[in-house]
Write a structure and sequence with these properties.
Blueprint (H helix, E strand, L loop, with lengths): L1 E3 L6 H9 L4 E3 L1 H20 L23 H12 L3 E4 L2 H15 L8 H12 L2 E3 L2 E3 L8 H11 L4 E4 L2 E4 H7 L11 H6 L3 H31 L9 H7 L2 H13 L18 H4 L1 H23 L7 E3 L4 E3 L7 H29 L21 H17 L21 H33 L6 H10 L12 H14 L15
Parallel strand pairs: 1-2
Antiparallel strand pairs: 3-5, 4-6, 6-7, 8-9
Helix pairs in contact: 1-4, 3-6, 4-5, 4-9, 9-11, 9-13, 9-14, 9-16, 11-13, 13-14, 14-15, 14-16, 15-16, 16-18
Organism: Halalkalibacter krulwichiae
Subcellular location: Cytoplasm
Family: Belongs to the PAL/histidase family.
Length: 506
Amino acid sequence: MVTLNGQTLNLTEVKKVLYDKEQVMASHESLKKVEASRKAVEKIVAEGRIVYGITTGFGKFSDVFIDKKNVEELQLNLIRSHACGVGDPFPEVVSRAMVLLRANALLKGFSGVRPIVVERLLDLINKEIHPVIPQQGSLGASGDLAPLSHLALVLIGEGEVYYRGKRTSAIDALTREGLFPITLSAKEGLALINGTQAMTAMGVVAFLEAEKLAYQAEIIAAMTIEGLRGIIDAFDEDIHLARGYKEQVEVAKRIRMYLADSKLTTKQGEMRVQDAYSIRCIPQVHGATWQTLNYVKEKLEIEMNAATDNPLIFNDGEKVLSGGNFHGQPIAFAMDFLKIAMAELANISERRIERLVNPQLNDLPPFLSPKPGLQSGAMIMQYAAASLVSENKTLAHPASVDSIPSSANQEDHVSMGTIGSRHAYQIISNVRRVLSIEAICAMQAMEIRGTNKLASSTKQFLEIARKQVPSITNDRVFSKDIETLNHWLKEDLFLFHEKTKDEIQL
């Protein structure tokens, strides 16, 4: 059971909720804060005070006073009118993350919702009722208004959900679980949709996959080193300590561990004096990606526990302040940085693929073909990798440098953070396929060199991976092999990344 309090949620707990279907509950102390802020909202309504989003309209309509008899209609109209998301839905796991993060934010006690709103969000998680939320339509400031409105629709019994493996109406799923729709009261609709939970949820899922992939990229690179008889001296600890980046030192250490007992690695001057950069600079490039991942993790864990709606209620309602915590700029920057860092893992991987298949760059059979000329072997796999790398270069264009005014220029600067997070996830999916291609090529080269000469770790990887993708003995439809290995890496069936950075082994 994961206990939410709006303060301490971390990525380890999020991972348990998302992938292990861990149940969630709210802490007693956080619910007391929720109750206190709710009383403040009710007092504001009763007194007829003019407070944005409670007794006024929204956005450019902030100067329109709303009578207390119309506050429920105001919230209902808000959710329905703002549910303007378009395009394919977010993956179901992202929807689950969105509900979790929204509940955690409300439990900070600054939002003025009733406890039942939080409890119903927790019900959605625990009953595995996941809103169907279109991916496109958010500007990433004023919060993720459109995506979160589709989430809020489910609470009022409207919209659609994923439930028991099917897409169905929200009211059907709620009814089958004995839950009733909520009638939103003052401030509650706004509190549900004024936040960064769509970009953050997408960012969390992207990060968790990126972290796993960064580890996988290292063992795959180690296999390529063996396939090319790479020079192990470039990974000597003294080189990396001399520069001083912790992540670079750690990558080099893991590569040395993977290749500790290999009979295929060489010493400088034994076959050649230096390797190409795509081999020699693995710790420097992969290490820089790890630096970025650490930065992104820090920002995500702050945002996961942030109050991002507007207005915020302090001092039992004595202080109600309109601000801009809904602006997604911190996450927008983090997602753009993540895009660039992960795209580089594919860039350097594709160059290693080229070195594996190009007969002018190695002493292996051309394109790793079993019958060069008659059979093309891995020739077009490199084309596919090059295409994915090139696509990543367009996706890596920073979303955060763009802005466009909205709400009659009241909301005149926005983050585009949700676009950034979606593109980050697309890039990560492309990177995994590039690494799948490298793995296929590296395994073929390793077998040509002789499996009896492999390091223990890479040999174990090869034996497990060969159950997924067989050796290339004849040309076949390699698309199936790439997708099979891609799925295997995504599911991470060998789970080696669960080890610590210093102890990681297969």
